[in-house]
Amino acid sequence: MRILLTVAYRGSNYCGWQWQENGPSIQQELETALEKALGHFVRVTGASRTDAGVHALCQRAQFDTDARIPPERYPFVLNRFLPPDIRVTHGQQVEDDFHARFMADRKIYTYRIYNAPVASALHYDTTAHVPVRLDEKKMHDAVQCIVGTHDFAAFVASGGSQKTTVRTIYSAKVERNGALITFTVCGNAFLYNMVRIIAGTLIYIGQGKLPPECLLQALESGSRLDLGITAPAHGLELTHVGYREEYRILP
Question: What angle do CA 217, 131, 53 make, to 5 degrees?
Answer without folding.
Answer: 75
